[in-house]
# Entry
Amino acid sequence: MKRIVAMLLIATATLPGRADTLTLTSGETVTGEITAETSNDYSVRIANPNFTITAIRIIPKTNVTSIVRDTPEQQARRAAFENLCRYHLQPDQEFPTAYYRQVIALMEKFLATYPDDDVIRSKLAQWKTELAQVTKGLVKYNNQWLPPEQKTAARKLALEQARLQAARKNLQTLQQRLDDLQTHQKDLNKEIETTTTELDRAEAALANLQDFVEPVYEYRPIGGAPFALSTRRGPIVWSPPFWERYMIGENVTRHPLRTYYEQQIAYNRNRLARLQTDLDQTIRDIRVIRADIEKAQADLK
# Structure
């Protein structure tokens, strides 16, 4: 009982003090409470249709064409109306009978003062109808009135259906993930095959290249047959040298395509390593997903 009274007091204490209607240059009307005013704008506290959530809206004064403020009588009626609009019936839960009676008493008091309010009159009829159902010992579930044991069974069934729906959704997500991984695995295998072919071609081409080899020679003298030369001073015997050429090494000039093929080989080897790493991880992921699918299928049984 104390909890119900506290709920009523809280609802009453949070009501706005007055309502102001601002007409904007765009034609829009804003109804709320002007909580602050500066030389440039208004701060207006507005609420949702059920008056359960409020927010502050800043409106420039240049956008306002007129302001209509409630009279004290209008303020009192609006405050009482907004207070009653805060009470809502729940689709899956009934209230204690004392709570129904207190809310009904508030609505009847309001209608005694403002009998022309059809909104509160309609809400009053709904609350009285629910009170009658609770008095019969029925409970509420999914906007239906049931005996307590049927509500327990219905709630259990709903929970089981929700569990199965979640399991089906999870299984569908896992299956889609598996399909994506298997497609990725096929793509990786194709890329590995293509890269391996390119690597083999580059290695074969490199092996068939012939570098340019040029021998390096030196010359050394060797003895020749002596012969006589006649000079003014007399004959001179001279043995002219013979020169012998012999190879001392080779100059090797790399084939101009050798560097190109070496770069191709290095690139394809690195690419193969990356692709293989990706493939290994994909295979591991597929194993994990398949295990998860088996668990999800078991949850559906």
About this structure: The first helix runs from residue 2 to 13. The CA atoms of residues 201 and 227 lie 66 Å apart. The chain has a mean pLDDT of 86. The radius of gyration is 49 Å.
